[in-house]
Amino acid sequence: MIIRRTIFLFTILAFFVSLKADFKEGKVLFEEKCASCHGEYISFKKLKENFFERNNNLLNLTIPTQNMLAWAIMEGSKKVGDPNDSEMRIVEIEEYLKSYLANPDINNTVCDNHVVKYYKEKEPMEISEDEATLLAEYFMGYKADRLKRFPKPVKVLKDNNDGKIIKEALEKNKQIIVFATAQSCYFCKKMKHEVLDLTEVQEAIAEDYIFIEVDVDYVALPFGLNKRFKGMTPTFFILTTSGQLINTYPGAWDRKDFLGILKENL
């Protein structure tokens, strides 16, 4: 039993080491063969404004950007493969890429139906088995690579330093969010996973806010917020760049409502 378990662990480790190495090759391949058509990264906040508020008149996109492709394949409503089975998912993404590129049928796209109507018809192209594998590994590793290069806009407060936070907020001209949480809080973890970890939400936060996470079981809330805190986690406090309280939002929120909170306090 121990030997089999050890072999299994080494197999998984080898798989992820290989995936990391081939991601770099896949990135080079994408840049050589795809990047001239599929533009560079555009924030989801701007993409949402472009497609849902401006009818594509802001960016005039006729083909998805590389981050739009990665999101559609890995996280969109029509995502490819099972997120819990990485080995099988690579195979399924490979097959999808080969099939779609050989026959770019709009009815078979992974892109959102609302944005597809703006895209021009794609010319068919053939890719080899090796190229399909490298591109699949590139899309598989895209989000992790971006988060490594551009970390989540979350600061975990371990001691109170109001002056340092305000200095950063003033320098960057951003307001402040204090997220009151606790390790034992089920809804805090649920909201992190379902809302705060979403790329769209992280980008909206990073655009306009300094985000401070505080475990209230171990650290006092900054800016004298303990006086306003009713003991419910999660609670979100929105403050000005100088640390003055604007609004308090106790409880967990879904993606749409939380994005609304971010927008209405600007």
From TrEMBL:
The Thioredoxin domain sits at 146-266
Q: Which GO terms describe its molecular function?
A: electron transfer activity; heme binding; metal ion binding
Query: What keywords are annotated for this sequence in UniProt?
Result: Heme, Iron, Metal-binding
Query: Which PROSITE patterns does this one have?
Result: CYTC (PS51007), THIOREDOXIN_2 (PS51352)
Domain Cytochrome c positions: 21-143
Gene3D superfamilies the record matches: Cytochrome c-like domain, Glutaredoxin
At the top level, the lineage of the source is Bacteria
Report whether Mitochondrion shows up as a keyword of the record: no
Q: What is this protein called?
A: C-type cytochrome
Which organism does this sequence originate in? Answer: Arcobacter arenosus
